[in-house]
Amino acid sequence: MSEYKGIWIIAEKTSDNKITGVTLELINVAKELSNQLSGEEVGTILLAGNENVEEFVRTISEAGSDKIYLIQDENLAQYSTELYTDAICQAIEQKKPSIVLVGATTTGRDFAPRVASRLNTGLTADCTALSINEQGLLAATRPTFGGNLMATILCKTARPQMATIRPKVLAKPEMNHGTSAQVEQINVNLDASRIKVKLLECLDACQIATQKIEEADIIVSGGRGMKTAEGFKILEDLAKSLGGAVGASRACVDAGWKPHCDQVGQTGKTVCPKVYIACAISGAIQHLAGMTGSDIIIAINKDPEAAIFGVATYGIVGDVFEVVPALTEAINAEKLTAVCG
């Protein structure tokens, strides 16, 4: 295991060809881990087709990666479980990083366990914190038992040490504009015949009137107390007046009122907006796991004993179907006054 050195991040790209926020968050935490490991190299794996990667390289460099390992092949233009797994495993076997960090995204959760299994190593999934312990091992912390406990897991007998980390739970780096990381090409052998699924068209199931919850500074989120899918109309009106997005608890998603991409919580997305407005949400610990990092939490619930009030910055005890429309009306009136002088 002494041959394994350095910390790697597997970079991901968005559908509009930008480096994802979680990739930048992982580079930032990797730099902190590197400082605890006497300055081990922070490297980023970038998989791409034959497109121009200059903008990707610039973003990764300015985020603070020491080196970029570029794997470029025409068969990697679109994500493929089989080929991404093949490429990443070959790169790890060639360069032997000690730690490999992956975003706990749909893509990351797909290929990371496959990579770990093929390399016969451990993987700690869905982490919320990372550190280096006294023995120099990666200490990966994740919720367990439904979020009631936090477990810190070590990988003592295999390399690399792997972890997937939830988006939005770690801080993004201060971008150092003008910085240029060293780029090294890694050659891999890929067999296009292993591709079992072909992407024909990409449709965004979460095109909403405002914006995606992971990108929003203000989120208006609804729980089971919204009663029906139509009940979310008042939340959409409030979100529109605030320039925010609409989220939902798992119960609402399970009921078919909102799509899964709008779910906040342990089995949904972790969000850190400036303002989180929880409407008719009781405050189950699984939901709290996804939003307690918000700067300001405003809770609206008719039950004064609801657990959500325990984490709220401000609480309103009342019927959400009365409070939210009144709040929206007041905000719109204030905006109109501002415009009209």
Q: What count of helical segments does DSSP give?
A: 8
Low-confidence stretches: none
CATH architecture tag of the largest domain: 3-Layer(aba) Sandwich
Strand order, largest beta sheet = 5-9-4-1-2-3-10
Name the beta content range: 15-25%
Global mean pLDDT = 90
Helix-strand pattern, N to C? EHEHEHEHEEEEEEEHEHEHEEH
Largest sheet: 7 strands, parallel
Under CATH at level 1, the class of the largest domain stands as Alpha Beta
Summing up helix and strand content along with how strands pair, one would put the structural category as: alpha/beta
Report Rg.
22 Å
**What is the 3D shape?**
globular
Layout of helices and strands:
Blueprint lengths: L6 E4 L10 H16 L5 E7 L5 H10 L3 E6 L8 H15 L3 E5 L2 H13 L4 E5 L1 E4 L5 E7 L4 E5 L7 E5 L16 E4 L32 E5 L10 H10 L2 E4 L1 H5 L20 E5 L5 H4 L7 E6 L12 E4 L2 H21 L1
Parallel strand pairs: 1-2, 1-4, 2-3, 3-10, 4-9, 5-9, 11-12, 11-13, 13-14, 14-15
Antiparallel strand pairs: 6-7, 7-8
Helix pairs in contact: 3-4, 5-8
Characterise this structure.
The chain has helices at 21-36, 54-63, 81-95, 106-118, 233-242, 250-254, 285-288, 320-340; strands spanning 7-10, 42-48, 67-72, 99-103, 123-127, 129-132, 138-144, 149-153, 161-165, 182-185, 218-222, 245-248, 275-279, 296-301, 314-317. It has 341 residues and is of the alpha/beta class. It has two domains: 7-194, 3-Layer(aba) Sandwich (Rossmann fold), CATH 3.40.50; 213-340, TPP-binding domain (Rossmann fold), CATH 3.40.50. The strands form three sheets. Strands 5-9-4-1-2-3-10 form a seven-stranded parallel sheet, with helices on both faces. The longest helix is centred in the last third of the chain and has 21 residues, at 320-340.
